[in-house]
Amino acid sequence: MGWLFYEELFFMLAFAGYIVASIAFFVLLVSSKEKVGKFAVAATSVGFALHTVAMFVRIIESGRLPFSNQYEFANSFTWGIVLCYLAIHFYYRFTAVGAFVMPLAFLMMGYASLLPRHVRPLMPALQSRWLTIHVGTAVVSYGAFAVACGLSVLYLLNSKKSQDNQKKKLLPDQEAVDFLSYRVAAFGYLMLTIVIVSGAIWARSAWSRYWAWDPKEVWSLITWLIYSVYLHLRFNRGWKGKPAAWFSIIGFACVIFTFIGVNMFLPSIHSYV
Amino acid sequence: MNKFQRWLFSLHLGIVLFILISIYAVFATLLPQGLPVAYYLEQYHFGAVIIAFGLHDAYSSWIFRLFMMLLMINLTGCTIKLIPSQRKRYRPDFSPSPKPNAENLWNELLIFDQVKNKFSKKGFKWFQKDGETWGVKHRFGVFASTVTHIGIIIIVMGSFVGNFFAQEGFFNLIPDEQAVFHENNFSVQLDDFYLDFREDNSVKQYYCDLTVLRNGESVKETTIWVNRPMKFNGIQFYQASYGWASRLKITDNEGNEAMNRFLRNDESVFFEPAHLTIHLFGYFPDFAMGHNEMPLTMTEREVNPHYAVVLYHFGEFVDSFIMNPNQSFTYQGYEITFSDSVLYTGLIYRRDHGYYFVLLGCFLLMIGLIMAFYTYPKYILMRKNELYAVTRQNAWGFSMWVKNQLKS
User: Fold this and answer.
1) Among residues B146, B144, B79, which one has the least CA distance to residue B374?
2) Per-residue model confidence as pLDDT tens digits over B115-152
3) What do you get for the CA distance between the two ends of chain B, in Å?
4) Residue A250 contacts B, CB cutoff 8 Å
5) Where does a domain end: A117, A147, A178?
6) Are A232 and B358 inside 8 Å of each other by CB?
7) Helices and strands, counts by H and E, chain B
């Protein structure tokens, strides 16, 4: 049995962990039982550990970071989402946020599982140290936007405050969710800026032009502009609450289109990712 | 400042422009760019609208340039407008005021001087005026938006410089050929071009050995590959493409050479004595026949080389051949052979001084964003039995941090 077997094994175990975590988070929302929340976080953590092992096996197998095709990026993207969620959970103790983030991770991993997994050597254009910076920051950025989107969904669903005291205890304060969504989106935005800048520097050394108006580049710019609007309105006009939450969700829709939609519907020199 | 100027420099216009540019760019990505106008008029019901709004060549269109120009004016005006208030807030004696609904973090257990000492260790500097004491950290963060905006302005200006003044071109070279840059008084010679293969015969990398010559003297020798261009005299040279060139020889029935030249794949040559057009359909170094009876190459290794050649006489199809380098065919007494195939390289050259402005702008943009999101000004305001965490950014997070500090 080769490395591919073990990678697939750990990938599927992690996938199972994320499915269990998603279900447990849903049960948590319905039952409001603290124990269920602890189990959901444990399942997420175990899934994340297994996922990390799967990623390491692939790194050993391919001799490089798993950033070079749609499967590898979707896989890393999922890893980034769960990493951002766990970081937020362990820092702020907002367990219930997982109910809105883990389904995104589960869906993204489901998408990855449908893609071909062959390990292919890097094509000449991808043989650059910028690959790590450009795609590595994209993984973190997209993960942060996913978590911000999950927080925004939580905010919108939690707008009608439940009278159930147990639920009130379970769901974080609306103001905290609103602020956290903004802070996570701001972090994702900074990372996205690094993605675009590092991509431009790399494009110049590989293709001669730092910006070629390729659909992937343009959609990254559109995503950046949407989040720029969101952050400006939030900071300067005090946009909070529902409008800000909707904007965060629209921003994440742009992220998803940049990642999947552009590859499916638009011709692009970035067609390998 | 009159009403028009206020509007021109307003956040409102900036937001509107961001949204308009986004919408315009969305349409641009959905349409093929740079095709003839007739194509859009024939293919799309709203072809006239596409042309009117310049969406067929979106990023060079008048409307896109107008958006960008307005954005530049807006950002510049907005930045200049904000500087006085930022300078005021930067002054050490600027005292913050908490929001009316701000949470008072003071509790009975706190001791005024201990709180000051605690936050002094975290980098806060303390000031006092009119019975108020406040600590401040990251005062320079007030300039975050200015730095960010200047970064964006420089990026856009740099891209304009690139659009209008950049030099760019493409040329092919066979080994030992030269490309002459008369204006710059040098030439670039390709010494060798070769492929590095993996075990599975896929191409790992493309290498060009180049020599730069000035007045016949070698002034630079280097090897370039994808992601590793050569820079000379402010011009970057990039390995961009490659192909095969094959030697075509035509000899008459007395053995005299009537033609000897290289042909690239899919290139034709007219041989006047026989009114013959010779089209090299392709050179296939690892020849195989595809399922649709079309020749193809399995790899770029020369393990089974073949040529596919098509002949036309006065524009009419005559015959086609698949032959290897040792074979020849005769037409009207002329013997035609192909041999000595070599790899040629396609090089892009580009000189764009705007890039350095873009790079500077990107650097400032990132610094500005870090200042805006992380090193923004933070104030701790203390009055008698009152303590407030004050910041325009991340009020909730900063307040939580101050609470945690006070607890510990």
Assistant:
1) B144
2) 999 999 999 999 998 888 999 999 999 999 999 999 99
3) 51
4) no
5) A117
6) no
7) 9, 20
Dump pLDDT digits (tens) for A89-98: 888 888 888 9
Residue A246, min C-alpha distance to chain B (Å): 15
Looking at the complex, report in whole angstroms how far the Cα of residue A98 sits from the nearest Cα belonging to chain B. 20
How many angstroms separate the most distant Cα atoms in chain A? 61
From chain B residues 22-51, the ones with a CB under 8 A of any chain A CB are 22, 25-26, 28-30, 33
Q: Are B247 and B339 in contact (CB under 8 A)?
A: yes
| Shortest distance, CA A126 to any CA of chain B (angstroms) | 8
One-letter amino acid at B22 equals S
Mutate: best of A235, A262, A269, A271, partner B, most B CBs <10 A: A235
The model's pTM:
0.91
Closest residue in A to B29 (Cα–Cα) = A215
Neighbour tally for A5: CB within 10 Å: 10
- End residue of a domain, out of A96, A117, A138: A117
Domain boundaries in chain B?
2-87, 91-138+377-407, 167-243+347-360, 244-342
Cα–Cα distance list, B350 to A212, B91, B226, B233, B356 (Å): 14, 47, 15, 11, 13
Half-sphere exposure (Cβ direction) of B138: Cα atoms closer than 13 Å: 22
Q: Which of A83, A223, A89, A78 is nearest to A154 (CA)?
A: A89
Nearest residue of B to residue A251, measured between CA atoms: B22
B273 vs B259: CA distance, rounded Å: 11
d(CA B110, CA A192): 42
